[in-house]
Specification:
2 copies of one chain form a homodimer. The first copy, chain A, is an alpha+beta fold. Chain A has 2 domains: 103 residues, 2-Layer Sandwich (Phosphorylase Kinase, domain 1); 287 residues, Aminoglycoside phosphotransferase (APH), C-terminal lobe (Aminoglycoside 3'-phosphotransferase, Chain: A, domain 2, Alpha-Beta Complex). Chain A is 51% helix and 12% strand. Chain A is built from 15 helices and 12 strands. In chain A, helix 10 runs antiparallel to helix 11. The first copy, chain A, is globular and about 60 Å long. Chains A and B meet through helix 6, helix 7, helix 9 and helix 12 of A and helix 6, helix 7, helix 9 and helix 12 of B.
Amino acid sequence: MGYYILDKTNIVEYLNSIENVKKYFAGDDLSIAEIGDGNLNFVFIVKSLKDESKALILKQAVPYLRCVGEEFPLNKERMTYEIRALQSYAKHTPKHTPLIYDANEEMSAIVMQFLGEHIIMRKGLIQEIIYPKFAEHISDFLATNLFKTSSLCLDSTAKRELIGRFNNNTELCKLTEDFVFTFAFMEHDTNDDYAKGHESAQKLFADMKFKKAVLELKYKFMNQTDTLIHGDLHTGSIMLNKKDTFIIDPEFSFVGPFGFDIGALLGNLIMSYTSHMAQETEISYCEWILDLIKEVLEKFENKFLQLWNEQKESSLLVSGFLDNNEIDEFKKEFMLNILRDSVGFAGCKMTRRMFGIAGVEDIREIKDEKTRNKAIKQTLKISKKFVKHYKEIEKIEDVITIIKGAQ
Amino acid sequence: MGYYILDKTNIVEYLNSIENVKKYFAGDDLSIAEIGDGNLNFVFIVKSLKDESKALILKQAVPYLRCVGEEFPLNKERMTYEIRALQSYAKHTPKHTPLIYDANEEMSAIVMQFLGEHIIMRKGLIQEIIYPKFAEHISDFLATNLFKTSSLCLDSTAKRELIGRFNNNTELCKLTEDFVFTFAFMEHDTNDDYAKGHESAQKLFADMKFKKAVLELKYKFMNQTDTLIHGDLHTGSIMLNKKDTFIIDPEFSFVGPFGFDIGALLGNLIMSYTSHMAQETEISYCEWILDLIKEVLEKFENKFLQLWNEQKESSLLVSGFLDNNEIDEFKKEFMLNILRDSVGFAGCKMTRRMFGIAGVEDIREIKDEKTRNKAIKQTLKISKKFVKHYKEIEKIEDVITIIKGAQ
């Protein structure tokens, strides 16, 4: 049975063909509702009519961009990579991965746990919610997944197999090359109308030192196969509440540079910070975000190093090759390079959200123009410094200093 | 028809099944002779009995290491990568690629031009032959192939396809990880007997600063997908005479770091130099090698930059993104990084030839022990400096200075 597009007329039949799902709903009648907020894909909530707490998500990719329509064709095989990444997350960090009931690469469809008690983190941050466990959770997620799928842990054969399983996610990697690293930094018809004639946009597009550094970072994105990355880990790819944190939507995943996911998260937390600062939200919330950033970076480093220290041998480091002092020195430099690249990528990610095709709600939805421009200016101050000076970062505190310095 | 091992009893029938080869020999009776010097594979010379100038090479991989036997199994699919790399070379630098008459991935076999008037470069250098066109030729080969298969030239889709076509050459990449970057720098039972108790070996194995830098370079080898590399471009993989230069044996090929092939060549030219210096060969020959090294590096850089300048647009650099000054600055830094990595890789390649499993004839075959040790010492002086200080190299002249300084 080949691929076909799922809709309300055939979803029940499809779900009944999956043993795992049939068992979950135990023969209950089902309601099907489409969630309208998926940009790329169709997402349905399937609920038991008898017991509304029994609910699953069905997500399917169609061969075009859902939010635009058939005139913007996009390979449906992107779901293959989302499925494979989620399966990898389920293996390494099941606590932070929605439970998968069925994954069907041929149908470009996945059935998974409905996160009814969690919201998209970006929304939560806009609502000034404090998440006391988030730093702990996301550092677990990042450290474990980034370490376990790298050459610091996998043997050469497993690493190459992993590269092979994600290597054809070309179309979505290309989207990142174009929209995260290129078009948003030059005059381009995909940019937001807001960019036209905007003073900060003009200055940005003319900042050649910035753009040269972007090119370096783009090259790293295209040519470094450190580890399996999510590829789009902004605060819209995280669902959480005060108790749990889940990572969703890894359709951009591929084997890429260590710093990219950390950078995406860092950049998006900072945009929440600059948004709240511009809007004069209570200072304690802004300070919580700053503390959170520091905690995430520190906990990531500690946990990553702990996993590395537990790993006695790898393709990279054969036991007995190097003495402990030099190993520690190697690891220290390695972690610093991850931090630096994370800062550089964060800078690209933040900057492209200012005038590029896709903004972030935190800033683009600020109604008052003066306030919005204040947020944009502060964001750009930080992001330009990040991109131009990421190689000079020496410690986590330097990152915080740059953020605080951009008042 | 599946894979079977070719031998004198079935080769004629096999060749007659290939239209292109049948046409070449035009029905002549054939003689088949095995060349004994292949380490990994079976290599046969097929000649017309009527006209001995009509000759082809038939090379087939068997599922084990030919020079050891069936007790050392080695995936015969390595020939797949040799075939694919040769086809890529034939496309980009046909002048330096043996003419391919047939390539059969299923049979792990290739039929190609017999280079009867050319010798292995290592032998030529040992015989003190001067090759006036070599720098021109090899810089063509390196610049063209390394540029044309990189993200500086290919679009993202073609680049990922290329990665995919070589990604499974795991076994041979692993050989490099183990034998070029690891075992030759520590006590290991694969090392040459000569290493046991050798003072320089002991010092090398204890040099932790050196080994930490090796680890960095090994990480680059494992995680950088710059371009299609030969993977084993020492002077034994080059056949030439005073007029022509051919590159052979790219079974180690995969998409890896820019500097690896240049480093392999550089390191092997230097070992020829240190060998001649220790043996007190006429100084003019030693000086020719030094000049050659400089010329190769300079010509490579110029030709690579010329190709890059001719390339108006690429996945990396969209037209109109950056102004010319910054582009030039970016390219300058990029070329310097290639040079630095080349020096680092050259250092690893040279060092591993001293006490590791595979020596080079230039040095290991020096009969007089004192002379041999002199060559080893000089080589190690250079190679250790290369590995520990490759990131401090600022220009090509610095490389020559290090070589000359190691008397």
